[in-house]
């Protein structure tokens, strides 16, 4: 074939298709030349996954001391002090549990005990404690400003009543040689302060894991206006106060004298 014939052949129009003149591609064919495109199957709906619900199906019941306060303690205090309005009856406001751990924060070898005490206090109270920091530096005690010196937990509402219930029913009976709490631990506002020398009196603490004894202070804040009202309120909740033998003997003697004095008066009135 001569060169002129080749040039005429190249000038002729090619059919639509690729540049090599293989013809048009069929509809639906992809670039790889594999023919009709396979139809995708519609995705089926995902099977519903069953989620295990480990939470409580019903709300937790209220603390039993709440019902006891409403049904028993309030009527008794109204009869004892003559309150005209039930809202003026003293009640528990909050309970504060605190630990002094300054000796562990100043010694670098015992810093692990600080974390252990924090964990044990959280187990006792059912709430994460707050770290208390030093407000100023004291060179004699090797304390610097901002150093962690203690822990505290403030309980209110249902947790407060549940803690008082566990305190009276479980913790106090486990105290060795217990003869009652000091009845003179009240301030002028009717708030009561007392303490424990060890944390193992609470059954929530694992005694096998305890490596040191740590005491704590407990403050029961009330809305009572006097010491007598606050003492009667805590007695109604079951707090066992120590009774002085001399005071108890004097009270019994006075009651006996009053009873003997009333008998002749009743006899003369009957005549």
Name the features.
271 residues; alpha+beta; 50s Ribosomal Protein L5, Chain: A; 5-stranded antiparallel β-sheet; 7 helices; 5 strands; 37% helix; 12% strand
Q: Given the helix and strand composition, which structural class is it?
A: alpha+beta
Q: Give helix and strand order, one letter per element, not per position.
A: HHEHHEEHEEHH
The low-confidence parts are none
Tell me the number of strands.
5
Query: Going across the major beta sheet, what is the strand order?
Result: 2-3-1-5-4
**N→C terminal distance:** 163 Å
**Which CATH class of the domain at 92-242 applies here?**
Alpha Beta
CATH H-level superfamily of the domain at 92-242: Ribosomal protein L5
Proportion of strand residues: 5-15%
CATH topology of the domain at 92-242: 50s Ribosomal Protein L5, Chain: A
Basic shape: elongated
What about the largest sheet?
5 strands, antiparallel
The overall pLDDT, averaged over residues, is 80
């Amino acid at each position: 074939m001569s060169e002129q014939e080749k040039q005429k052949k190249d000038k002729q129009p090619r059919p639509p298709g690729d540049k090599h003149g293989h013809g048009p591609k069929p509809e639906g064919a992809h670039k790889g030349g594999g023919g009709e495109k396979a139809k995708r199957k519609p995705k089926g709906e995902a099977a519903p996954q069953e989620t295990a619900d480990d939470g409580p199906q019903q709300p937790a019941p209220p603390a039993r001391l709440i019902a006891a306060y409403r049904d028993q303690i309030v009527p008794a205090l109204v009869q004892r002090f003559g309150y005209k309005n039930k809202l003026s009856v003293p009640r528990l406001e909050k309970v504060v549990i605190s630990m002094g751990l300054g000796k562990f924060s100043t010694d670098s070898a015992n810093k692990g005990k600080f974390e252990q005490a924090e964990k044990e206090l959280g187990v006792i109270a059912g709430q994460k404690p707050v770290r208390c920091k030093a407000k100023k530096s004291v060179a004699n005690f090797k304390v610097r400003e901002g150093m962690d010196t203690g822990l505290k937990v403030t309980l209110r509402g249902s947790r407060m009543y549940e803690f008082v219930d566990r305190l009276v029913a479980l913790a106090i009976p486990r105290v060795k040689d217990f003869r009652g709490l000091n009845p003179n631990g009240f301030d002028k506002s009717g708030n009561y302060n007392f303490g424990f020398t060890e944390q193992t009196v609470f059954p929530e603490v694992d005694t096998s894991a305890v490596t040191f004894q740590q005491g704590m202070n407990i403050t029961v804040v009330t809305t009572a206006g006097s010491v007598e009202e606050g003492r009667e309120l805590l007695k109604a909740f079951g707090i066992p106060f120590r009774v002085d033998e001399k005071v108890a003997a004097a009270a019994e003697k006075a009651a006996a004298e009053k009873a003997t004095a009333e008998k002749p008066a009743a006899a003369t009135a009957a005549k």
